[in-house]
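Margin note from the TA: students keep mixing up input and output lines. Inputs are the sequences; the output is the structure of the whole complex. Example:
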Amino acid sequence: MNREDFPILNNGKIYFDNAATTLKPKCVIDAMDKYYLEYTSNIHRGDYDSAVITNKLYDNVRNIVSEFINCDANTVIYTSGATHSLNMVVFGFMRYFLKPGDEVLLNKAEHASNILPWIKLQEEIPFTIKYIPLNEDYSLTLDNIKKCVTLKTKVVSLAMISNVIGDLRDIKSIGEYCHQNNIIFNVDGAQGIPHMKFDFKDSNVDFLSFSGHKMCGPTGVGILVGKYELLEKMKPIMYGGGMNSFFEEDNSYELKSIPTRFEAGTPAIAEVIGLGEAIKYLMNIGMDNIHKQEINLKKYFLEKVKDINNIIVYNKNINSGIIAFNIDGVFAQDTSMYLNHYGIAVRAGNHCAKMLKDEMNIKNTVRISMYFYNSFEEIDKLIEVLKNSKDIFKVVL
Amino acid sequence: MNSDLKREIIFDNYKEPMNKGLVEDESYLKANTKSDSCIDNLDFMMKIEDGIVKDIRFDGEACAISTSAASIMIRSFIGKSVEEVKNILENYVAMIEEKEYNSELLGELNVYDEISKQPNRKNCALLPMQAVEKMLNSLK
Ligand SMILES: Cc1ncc(COP(=O)(O)O)c(C=O)c1O
C-alpha cells in the first residue's frame, strides 16, 4: 500500500531490507528540502523570520512524538539514532545508578547497541550482565525473565522486536512486572516503534530508544524518551552550546532544563523536521494498518514458500514482518548476491547480534524484512527466484 | 579462459575445497579474516620451512567466492618459496584492483580476472590473500 508515495520505488527494484533502513516518502524529502531551500537557520538563537519558523518546526516535533507514542513532550530527547539514545541511557543514567554487584538482564538476540555499551560500563562498575535464556524458537517471554530475576536485578534491557528473529516481546506485561519489582525497564524500540502502535504511558517502560531512518524518516536522527523523574537523574554525555544556562570563570555552570540539556551543539535540524513529517505520515496511514499489512505479507510468503523444499525458515511463528531463512546448503551471502542479481535487496549475516550464533547453531541467515509498501507481487517475484535457486551458482559465479 | 570453465573451476573448489580443516600444530602461522564489511569468517594456518611454503590449511564459514579463492590459492602456493608467493600475491591483488599485473604468474587464480565487474565481491576474492599476507608479515 501507499507505494506511490515513494519515488525510489519507480526504479523497479524490490526492497526487502527494511530492518536496516526504510525508504523515504516524498513528503519527508520535501519537508527537509524546504528547510534547506526556504528557511535555513540555526535554532534557539535567531530573532529573524526564518529562525522563528525553524524553531517552531523543530520544537513541534516533540509534540508530534508525544502524540505518536503517548508521552509528555518535555520527555522527548532528540538524538542521532537509537545507538546514541541507548548510549545516553547507559553512560548518562546507569553509570550513576548501578552499584557493584547489581545485575542487568540482557539476552543474546539483542543488537550490538544494547550489549556493547553495557560491557563497556561494566569495565568501570563491577555489576553483572546476565543473558536471559531464549526459548527454543529464540523468542523471549516474561517467564524467561522471571526465572532470571533475583533481588540484585536492577535493570531489564531488551528490544521490543529483535532484529534477527523478529519476535515481538510482550512489553506491557514485562513492564508491569519490572515496575512491581523495582526494576528499571529499558526498551530498544528501533525495530518495534516503526511497525506497531505503542503507548509509552500505558507500558511502564522507563526509557525508550528509536531511530528515525527505520520509520520512513531521515538518517542521523533518533529519539530517547524517558520517565521525567529518571531524566532528572540522568546526566548529559555531551556538553557545549545550547544546553547550558550559564558558565563562569569560577567553573560554575548551570544546565538548561530537560530535555534541552541533553542536546548539546547544533542538532540535525533538517532531520528532526523530516522525522516529524515521517511520524505524521505513519499516523495518517495508521500503525495498526501498517502492522496488519506486514503480517499479511509475511503470511503470504510463508504460504508460498512451503512448496519450495530447500528453503529453511527459522522463525515461522513470530508476529512481525521479519523472516530469517537459508537455502539449504548455500551460504547466506551467496543467496543475497543471487537475489541482488534479480534486483531484490535482502540482508545476509548475523545482523549485529553476534552472540546469537551460539544460541542458534547457524551463524548466518538471510533476512527479509517487510514494510507496508512491500507488495504481494514483490513476494511472488521473490518466490519465483527462490524456486529457481538450483541455478544459483550459475548466477553468482 | 571462457566463463563456463571459470565457473566450473570456482564451483569445484567451493564444493570440494583443498585443505579445508585445521590441524593442531604449533609450528604453523595463524590468521583470521573476520571483517566488518562482510560476513565471511575464515581461519588460516600456514607452515613454512626453509623459506618454502609446506602447507596451508583453512576452515570456517564463507561464501562461494572466498572459499574457492582460498582453495585455489592454497593449491598454487604450496611448494613455492616465500618470495614467489609474495610475487603472486602482489599480482593477484593488482588483478582484483584492476591494475597492471602479470597473468602468467597467476595460473588458475586467473579465474577471478573479471571479479572487479562485481565490486561487492572483490573483498571476497581478496580475503584469503589478506590472511596469507598477515601471516607472512608476522614472520618479520
Ligand atoms: C534492534 C536494533 N536496535 C538498535 C539498532 C541501532 O539503530 P541505529 O543504527 O539507527 O542507531 C538497530 C539497527 O539496526 C536495531 O535493529
